[in-house]
Amino acid sequence: MAFFALYMIASFLILGGSAYYLIEEKLQLNALEVINQYLFYYLVLDLFMRYMLQKMPVVNIKPLLYLPFEKAKVVQFSLWKTAISFFNVIHAFFFIPFSVVLIINGYPPLQVLAWLMAIYALLYCNNFINVFLNGVNAILFVVFGFIVALGTLQYYAMFDVTQYTQPVFQYFYSVPYLAFVPVLFMVTLYYFAYKYFKGNLYLDAGLALKHQEAATEDLNWLNRFGSISVFLKNDIKLIKRNKRTKTTVLMSFLFIFYGLLFFTNAVEVYQAAPWRFFAAIFITGGFLFSFGQFVPSWDSAYYPLMMSQNIRYRDYLNAKWWLLVAATLLTTILASFYLYFGWEIYLTIIVAGLYNIGVNSYMVLWGGAYVKTPIDLTSNKKAFGDSQAFNAKTLLLTVPKILIPIILYSIGHYAVGPFLGYLLVVLAGVLGSAFKDKVFNKIEKVYKAEKYKTLVAYKQKN
Amino acid sequence: MIVTENLSKAYNGTTVLNVGALEVPTGQAFGLVGNNGAGKTTFFSLLLDLVQPTSGHITNNGIQVNTSEEWKPFTSAFIDETFLIGYLTPEEYFYFIGELRGLNKEDVNVFLNGFADFFHGEILGGKKYLRDLSKGNQKKAGIVAAFIGKPKVIVLDEPFANLDPTTQIRLKKIISAYKENDAVTVLISSHDLLHVTEVCERIVVLDKGAVVKDIKTSRATLQELEGFFAEEILNVPGED
């Protein structure tokens, strides 16, 4: 997350410093006017992003309630705390350099500063509006639909909202004392946010945690899978009902489109045959890799139960394996839109899918046995990379997962042609599945040997 | 029958449990009492093979728990919230445990009927996941799950903590019923001396990992225990 923040800061800084020159010199337009034109969308998008991502101060208020502070103080503290949030600070990295460049290029400083103040006041208005919006789902869709509609209308030159908003922003510059209007607006919003907040400062009102309504599901159709069905049912619920797993599924879905980088000839280097096969492995293996690498960590919150209940390890493992296989089959089918790029490309994807099922499905389970990272299912923290998940053993196991199929394919491809390449990989997949029992025995041994260490590791919740 | 031989557990050279030889005959209602850090949970974790013994071993009905897993079919436990699956509803959780122990949904429903009183209408059909239940209700679900499937050995760590008074009394009745059953061994730990003397036939007091008292419960037991723990206060140097 820190890396992402730094990246954003750097991008905003570079944009802020160069926007003036880009617009004036490349587009031959007035930079301030262009920025003012799109400022409307910028502000709406900012509100949208805040709604999606900015955490409300309520979250950390509870412990303050019992301490000897006045309620007014607690609310003020929480609201002021949002003022220095990343979502407010980040804009400074664009607007301050941009304003400095304006002044350097002969714009009158007082007017530029008034404009800057007005814009920042509007951004802070967003900050306080967001306090009200928290948890109102309907708003999200209304606002989002609104921008899409306006954007579409503008694109087809039917109605241009910026024609009306651009002059408003321009006034803050040309008539500097008008910049106090948004400031006044911001102060008013702060006052209302303060009142609203203070009135809701009770455990059963504003501070109440929202619970999902739960419904018991039978998933009886899974009973046909015999002894592993009991675990499959749980795994489906695990995926459906937890934030972290849902993110993982979404990410693995996005992996399906990874191949577009390779097959649309967007990047020249990627046109080489080994690269295409590399892409195919990831297109079909998104879920396999992103979910599979954390087996059994998905069950870390209740691992002691799993270790002391009447559970045969083979069944538990088998259920996870079937889940991975089913997901790989499904992604291979979903990826059939690659037929658009020619049947040979889809053939590559099918072959890679077969290798993923035949070999990689238990290679990831093997690697997962060494990953001892407890997973907090209810939070998305660490969903995008966990350094603990990478150690020498898991790294070593990526060799058979990715390198071997690529090497096999390349040998066949460059010796005779793509078909020999496919044949070699498919043979490896078939051969690999013959070793399934052997590998499962090995994994079982690893699990048993690592059991106590894993239990201790899962206890350390971060 | 549960037998420990030369059993001890140490972390980084500090002994947290050293009970040596201890025997819990089949059918006994066995109570473990002691202050925080006395080693009660460690003892149960060793019995469930969740931690490795530093020396010795435990056998559960003839099966050495850290070398074979054959004890699992007849043993069940509720130690803490890590024995609950947070994203399941209580019903789903019971069915899951039931399936692991060879019971189908109907069997589990019949079984749960017997606990309607104990649940007090707060567990079943509540449209809540286990993770959203209160601590007390989570505990109720966990304890009942430990009774599913006619286990021969039941391990409950601090079952009375967090329960409301009515539920505590109901739980005492349930455990007392097992006391009459000579096939089922119940092991519980507790900080509540009154409860534990009421439901257990035998009470072992742990202090800093060692067995300091091993009492067959009688009328005098409660007083004896209270005397023991009060003495601890009197004996602490510098705390007067």
Automatic annotation (TrEMBL), chain B:
<keyword id="KW-0547">Nucleotide-binding</keyword>
<dbReference type="InterPro" id="IPR051782">
    <property type="entry name" value="ABC_Transporter_VariousFunc"/>
</dbReference>
<dbReference type="InterPro" id="IPR003439">
    <property type="entry name" value="ABC_transporter-like_ATP-bd"/>
</dbReference>
<feature type="domain" description="ABC transporter">
    <location>
        <begin position="2"/>
        <end position="233"/>
    </location>
</feature>
<dbReference type="GO" id="GO:0005524">
    <property type="term" value="F:ATP binding"/>
</dbReference>
<keyword id="KW-0813">Transport</keyword>
<dbReference type="Pfam" id="PF00005">
    <property type="entry name" value="ABC_tran"/>
</dbReference>
<keyword id="KW-0067">ATP-binding</keyword>
<protein>
    <submittedName>
        <fullName>ABC transporter ATP-binding protein</fullName>
    </submittedName>
</protein>
<dbReference type="InterPro" id="IPR003593">
    <property type="entry name" value="AAA+_ATPase"/>
</dbReference>
<dbReference type="InterPro" id="IPR017871">
    <property type="entry name" value="ABC_transporter-like_CS"/>
</dbReference>
<dbReference type="InterPro" id="IPR027417">
    <property type="entry name" value="P-loop_NTPase"/>
</dbReference>
